[in-house]
Amino acid sequence: MLRKLKKILSGPLFSRTGALSFLLAVVSGAIVASVFSFFKITFLAWFSLVPLFYAVFGKDARDRFILGYVFGIVSFAGILYWLVNVSWPGAVCLVMLLALFPAFFCLYNIKGTAGDVIAIPALWVITEMVRSHIFSGFPWALLGYSQFLNVPVIQIADITGPYGVSFLIVMFNFAIFSGTKKMKARMVHNVTCLLLVIASIYYGFNAISSDKGAEGDSLNVSVIQGDIPQEDKWDPAFREAIIDKYEILSRQASNDAPDLVVWPETAVPGYIEGDDYINKRMSSIASGLNSFVIAGALRNSAGKYFNSAYLMSQDGRVNGVYDKVHLVPFGEFIPYEKYITWFRGLIDKPIGEFSHGKKYDLLRFNVKRRSREIGSITSSTRFFEAGVMICFEDIFPYIAGTFVKNGADMLINITNDAWFGETKAPYQHVQSSVFRAVENKVPVIRAANTGISCFIDRFGRISGAVSKNGREIFVEGYSTKAVEVRPSKTIYSVYGDVFGYMCFIFFAVMTVFNALIGKSVDRM
At what angle do helices 88-98 and 61-79 cross, to 10 degrees? Predict the structure, then answer.
């Protein structure tokens, strides 16, 4: 082992030129990390991989892998630094694992052939797809998410999902590298990239402009941000005070006549079913508001515990429940715990023993409208169906897509990001919700314990965030907004990640194409 390490350290990677390659990989990783923390510079994502391409170009496979791993360590450490507030050993392990994906990406040997302009971004998408699904998946901070404020560009997500935006960014980076490196096929690379970028921007502007004047149903929704400290949430001494706070904020919001009031994940400090005190308080609050209430709470069913979302009707009854399907591994449960019973003792934070929900149940409620016409008063009833994504379920495109396929005409994310402190984690989290709205062309409503609680329209535009003195996290308050609902099915909501799977085909075809071109060149 020591002999192998000595050989690596004495190799070309650690020469003067190797040190420069290391520096370029670090710089590239730092730029990627920065665009997920400083949102006014997200345009840098379009140039962020150029240093990495320079670092790995011309290196052997081992050195490319190491440089890709260095890039991955720097970028993911810079993005996920806030995880140390939960568990620093877990944060280190996760960063080291996630860094393997860009390392495998860098194994690709750039030769500058025409096919590289497709093969390279396709390979990046493949690594993101695998990361999104393997070991229960962790599609946090996909490269495309960096453009969540670039509304025209991200509209292609209703066809390609977030992977299409990642594809464009990587292609653009490679085209710059190809041009500055004066590769023989740079004209093919640059023209292909330019055409796809222009087509995507045109598609985005056209989608937004063609929607003007279209009408849909609307309902008033209030989101409540309680700002309950994590250490107080499950302390019995604070139970009554917590419910009082949510009731007071909800009653203040009732002045806006909301049809629906949304509380965050586990906002209710107890069991709505099975705890008489909690049940009576929630029933009284819902009926007193004369609004439907969706609230996060725990649920106990036959000894199994669920992280759930409850729908309380205007008459104070439970009208529906959704149990969280995708739990947080090593947070809400330990995967394969019966085989690693010792693991729970290694972690210095409590780990839940929750059960997975089995169905993507929609929460259905109705809104009555009365209108005056000459000589009469007419009334109508409109039924709405909401898909509720609890905690980090909104980072998984398939969960939102399944809800929409089942008939959801809006998506709601209830979450508690208090664990992560005053960091960029809540802002990174909201990026995922933006893409869920665009992919399915439905509004997304967010209620977060400590923020960010806001509204996202079908094009991914954020508005109505709860704020106080310019702050959006770790403040209490509420926000009410008229949410327009216009159910529609997009290519992505119907066919899901077909573009992502096509990238596997793109990569295979272009790899064969590059190999054939390379042999032809060798014979000349």
Answer: 140
Is 494 domain-assigned?
no
What's the average model confidence in pLDDT over 489-504?
Answer: 95
Regarding whether 299 and 154 lie in a shared domain, the answer is no
Decide if 265 is catalytic. yes
Domain that holds residue 35: 12-210+499-523
10 Å Cβ neighbour count for 467?
17
**The pairing of beta strand 292-301 with beta strand 304-312:** antiparallel
Kindly name the residue from 106, 128, 324, 439 that is annotated as catalytic.
Answer: 324
DSSP category for residue 356:
P
Does the structure show a pLDDT above 70 at 15? no
In DSSP terms, which residues pair with 153 in a beta bridge?
none
Q: Which of 265, 385, 439, 476 is catalytic?
A: 265
CA distance 430 to 462: 9
Give residue for tokens 């507030």.
85
For 450-479, write each residue's pLDDT tens digit.
989 999 999 999 999 999 999 999 999 999
Q: How far apart are CA 417 and CA 80, in angstroms?
A: 13
**Number of domains within the chain:** 2
Residue 491 resides in a domain: no
Q: Is residue 468 annotated as a catalytic residue, yes or no? A: no
Q: In what order do the strands lie in the sheet with 318-323?
A: 318-323, 304-312, 292-301, 260-262, 217-225, 477-485
Say whether both 229 and 196 belong to one domain: no
| 215 is an active site residue | no
Q: List the catalytic residue out of 106, 128, 385, 391.
A: 391
